[in-house]
Structures are given as C-alpha cells and as structure tokens.
Amino acid sequence: MLKIVKWVLVLLLALMVGGVLHYNLPRHDIVRVIGTENRRVTPGMNAIFWSNAEPGSGSREVRDVFFINTALPNGREKVFRNEDTGWGWPPYYKFSAFDMQAQVANMVSTADAPRWVAVRHYGWRNQFLTIFPNAVKVWEVPGPDTRIIPWFNIIFLTLLVAVVWAITARVIRFRDRRLKPALDRLDKRVDARRAGMSRWFRGK
Question: Which of 83, 148, 167, 168 could bridge across to 51 with cysteines, CB 3.0–4.6 Å?
C-alpha cells in the first residue's frame, strides 16, 4: 500500500513539474498572420494565466490586450495574446508589446500571397478557461516548413536533469553513508534494550 501511495505522489509531482515546464518554456509556431485586434479584458478566475498590467500602468483589472490572429500551415486558426511580461513571471522581460503589435500588423498576408512568420510563445490555449498563449517574439521565415531548433529548451532541460541527478546522487550517498548506518545503530540499541527488558522480566 505504501509503495502505491509513494508512486502516486511521485506521479503527481512529475505531472505538476511537467505542467509548469510545458506552460512556461518557449515554443514556436510557423503561422500566417491574418489580422490583429485590441480587446477589453477583465481577468477573473483565470487571472493567473494573464500577465500583469503593462509596466507603468496602474490598472491590473480591466485593461486592453492586443491579440494576433493567425493561420497554421494546415489551415487551422490560432490566436495569440500580445502582453508584456515586465519583471514578472515567467521571466521573459518583455516590454515591447506595442512595438510587436505594429510589427505583426505589417506582416498580415492572404492565403494567395502568404508571408510566413515564426512566433515564439509560452502558455496554453484553452477555450473553457478563455486563455491564450502569449507571443514574446515574431520574425519572418522563408516558408511553412522552416525548422526552428529549440536550443534554449534543450540546454535548460539538460541542465535541469543534471542538477536533479546530482542532488539525487548526493541524497542517496548521504543516506547510504550517514543515515542508514545511524538507523542501523539505533535499531541495534533498541533491540538490545528490548532483549535486556525481556531478560529482566523473565528473571523477575
């Protein structure tokens, strides 16, 4: 039973860490920009999935948010929000939402004469929660088959695995060298005291 509880906890922890990484790490899409817009947004229960107000702005409730409407190479539409992250989380330190919106507006194209654009973004699209991935950088690419290697993710995940492995190895070594011998000595003392008390009761 304890093993089942242990593996359930490990699985939940892995899902939680995986979800945080999947939400916050950058991803890329090759799209065709079909339009831009500005909407009035009032974050509610989904406020955790929206950035703070723009740096220098005092309002964290009702505010205008830029959106980028795009089409994927397979024809499906995808909508991105364009919000500054400022000094908040995740640490993309984006302060250029207005400039990016002007840049994207200049990239709008039609299906007959497409201009393909790479969008670096983080976050999820969920219709039930009304959340959108946040675009952090856009640039024009030669075509829809352009391949973008996620070097940052590769390096970050490699370093993360190395750190976790190093910490785990040190914990196991500490357990085997210090903790386990100490527990064994404690067990021997407890057994010796139990044996002494047993002899005392039998003698009595």
Answer: 83
